[in-house]
Amino acid sequence: MTSNSSKRQALLAAVEGGGTSFLVTIALVKSLDTRDLTTIPHTSFEILHRDTILTTTPEETLHNTCSFFSKHRPANGFDSLGICTFGPVGVNPLDKTSYGRILPGSPKKDWRNVDILSPILKACSSMDGKKQPTCKIDTDVNAPALAEFEYVTKTLQKPITSLAYITVGTGVGVGLVVNSQPVHGMMHPEGGHVPVVPIRGDDFAYSWGDRSPFRGRNTVEGIASSVALTERLAIVSQLTDSSAFQNREGLKDLSNDHPVWEHAANALANLCVTLALVTSVETIVLGGGIMNREVLYDMVRERTRELLNGYLNVPQITTREGLKDYIRPSIWKKEGPGLVGALVLAQLALQEKQTVEETTQMFATDEGAALQDTTPIQTKNNNYKIWPQFALCSSAFLLGLLIGGVKRRNG
Prior knowledge:
The structure is a single chain. By secondary structure, the protein is α/β, with parallel strands linked by helices. 43% of the residues lie in helices and 15% in strands. The strands form 2 sheets. The chain has a 5-stranded mixed sheet.
């Protein structure tokens, strides 16, 4: 069966929830023969409406987000909803107490335990409230990882099963696809908090580490995030004004050879090495505001090779072209990998629903055909009646042979 939503161009709602802003989007899923210049490159998505909503209080942010979708929704609501958001967030649909909620461990105090899924889902439902869209929610790094993975495997048709997406901004996040599925496990990956080997003599500690693993000391986020880099810059520059420790815009004015970038590259290379050794991941994608500093890509690649010390003797590491393809920027650097990731979540949710509907219809059709055609079943039943008779005769025949053999030996 082909569901109603697949007979026409499906209408998707998507949210990328960030600490600075929420990007809200409505898009059509276009078929291969209708894709044109209005379609996001390397996707089937055509953006119809989009807006940027400043992240303020949870109440105000969610109200404005819901108002956007309510304004543009059709009478029957949207076909599917995808949400990717800052974490930690509940992504296990079987855990009703946490699914769709920002978890208590979030550094954003006002957002702890806030249900972001339910109000948005309601705003995307039909106007009479009887029909809800299918939905998926994941982290703002797992969703881009999944989108990049779909691109590599389906568009480029490369036979990989794993990919990591790293975003470097206010914090550092890691999304993982392993065995062709996003990794959730106990919660979801928080790879930005893994420890690193710092550059010799470095004793820097950033101020956001109090609630972080290792108290943020010598971790990827504690060295490479914009917060850490800004604080390091203030210390190196011997600035005492407290505003200097918060002025992240100052990073844009630095030259490419400023020492802070060496610390950032070292921390990110440590993370790449950890991912390569622990998960044997086949592609690592780097994104986020800090990675707008293009020189960092080559710095991270070369430092990754140095740290691996020849241990992984594979072309992805040993050759320049292999390493360039192994550690690379997002294919949607211009459009925003988070936005595309949220749309991919919505599309996958819809595809899963359609698969279930088609499978259900197929079994229903087979069962109906079986009930209508009773002749083969009757023939089978008659055959079943013959088998016991045949078995009884065979047993008697074998028993006779056995008795005859015994008599001949005794005779």
